[in-house]
Amino acid sequence: KLQANVQQFGNNAFPVEEYIATIHKSIWKEILGTGPVKMDAYRRNLQKTYFGAMTEIIMSKDPVYTETEASSIIRADMFLLKTEIDKAILRSTEPLTLYHLKDIQERFKTAFNSKL
């Protein structure tokens, strides 16, 4: 729907790539930057939900999802997330946060067969 708005309203619409980037920065704000990484259970659950939803879209066989620019943008977002998580693991000393990040790292391997 966002893409349709961009096509209809041009620069007056919120582009899909900006939408995904905005959500990404909000949901994963704890792993961005250079300081220590720590998050509470609510944030970890939100991040798992985000990962699951994005993975479901990427893994879908439905052309409604796969044959759109949104699919490519979401895949690019997941490439970025994988890189950010790999870096954040090195800065995480709080056990539950570290377990969470390593869990997401493993979910990448399982979901994408190490192709990301």
Nearest-integer average pLDDT = 87
End-to-end Cα distance, whole Å, is 27 Å
Principal-axes shape call: globular
Helix share, percent: over 70%
Low-confidence segments, ≥5 residues, pLDDT <50? none
Strand composition percent: under 5%
Write down how many β-strands occur, each being a DSSP E stretch of 2 or more residues: 0
* Rg calculated over all Cα atoms: 15 Å
**Element-level helix/strand string:** HHHHHH
- What profile does the largest beta sheet have? none
Number of helices: 6
Which structural class do the helices and strands define?
mainly alpha
Short description:
This protein is an all-alpha fold and 116 residues long. The protein contains six helices and no strands. The radius of gyration is 15 Å and the shape is globular.
Structural features, described:
- The chain is an all-alpha fold.
- Helices cover 72% and strands 0% of the residues.
- The chain has 6 helices and no strands.
- It has helices spanning 2-9, 16-27, 41-59, 63-66, 69-91, 95-112.
- Helix 2 runs parallel beside helix 5 and helix 3 (41-59) runs antiparallel to helix 5 (69-91).
- The longest helix is centred in the C-terminal third of the chain and has 23 residues, at 69-91.
- The two termini are 27 Å apart.
